[in-house]
Amino acid sequence: MDKDGWKAETWTQFGVRIVRKGIPGIDKPGVLSPETAARKAAGLTAGLDLTDCAAEITQLEIPNGDDTIPISVYRRRAQSDAPAPAVICFHGGAFRTGSRRDIEPPMLLLCQKTDAVVFNVEYRLAPQYRYPCATDDCWQAVKYVYRHARELGIDAGNITVCGDSAGGTLAAACARRDRNYRTRMIRRQILIYPVLALFDPSGMKDYSFSVDHYQFDDAYAPQIIAQLRALAAISAGGSFYTKDETQARLPDASPLADRSFRDIPETLILCGEFDFVLEQSRTYAKYLAQAGTAVKLVIYRGMMHGFMNFTGIFPQAENLVEEMADFILNDRGG
């Protein structure tokens, strides 16, 4: 059991601390969480606000050339005068869909649990705005928050970037730019089922993908296999953000393709058991650990892609936020 009472297995492999969490109340392996079917049957598309105290929500427009980048800012009303940790988050949606509103419930909950100021970024979407527009927008947001730390009431030395799915790509790209430009603005990164390669990475060292790598009960095979193959096709078709495969293989677009993984900040990766990008996450975590970064990978049994958004519906979504909060509050960096 972990500290939250979840049945969990923990081990270290290739320098990566791995935690695999069970489905509450279910010991049988290889099955989908019952909430997955319930959510689809009910047609639910968003999570619930689980906060028990009102957050102050403001809107910020930061300059970006001739345009601006909209950002929702969440902070505790009873926050102290001391500079707060900052979390800069990027939503998912395959670079073409989605909005900061999709991840507002879990980000509000994260704000409550950490007393951090959370900056929820609305970056430009493809196909109108292709690579590197979204990446540049998110990097601009990081620079703005860091440079305006005092007026925003945050600690410039305690900035976390995080993102889910395509947002995870963007968070990892920002961490990489921070390393390359030696700006040292980002203290840690949280990647939630991140898409780390916008091309088929088959053949890369330590990476392989096969449906046979996933262990599942035959009764769930059609749904799980269809989801795995659909995500694999989307991930390998980087043209939904980049203009061609050559561009998709740039490390700024696909962090898994980087030539060096040294000096990337401490990293937490969270992923579902039946998610295609789990294989990318394993490989990326191994690369980081071999380069000296502290990495923790949390795998949720019975989960597919996109579950973070469903706070109040999936218990795993709330536990995922607990993991994020613990990572921010129990910092080993500095």
Could you give a short description of this structure?
This protein is α/β, with parallel strands linked by helices and 334 residues long. The chain has helices spanning 34-42, 104-114, 133-147, 149-152, 166-180, 221-236, 245-248, 277-290, 315-329; strands at 8-13, 16-21, 55-64, 67-76, 84-90, 117-121, 154-164, 188-192, 266-272, 295-300.
Commentary on this structure:
The protein has 334 residues and is an alpha/beta fold. The protein contains 9 helices and 10 strands. The protein has a 10-stranded mixed beta sheet with strand order 1-2-10-9-8-7-5-6-4-3, with helices on both faces. A hairpin with a 2-residue loop joins strand 1 (8-13) and strand 2 (16-21). The protein starts with 7 loop residues before the first strand and ends in a 5-residue tail after the last helix. The mean pLDDT is 91.
Number of helices, counting only DSSP H or I runs of 4 residues or more: 9
Work out the number of β strands. Answer: 10
Uncertain stretches: none
Q: Portion of residues in helices?
A: 25-40%
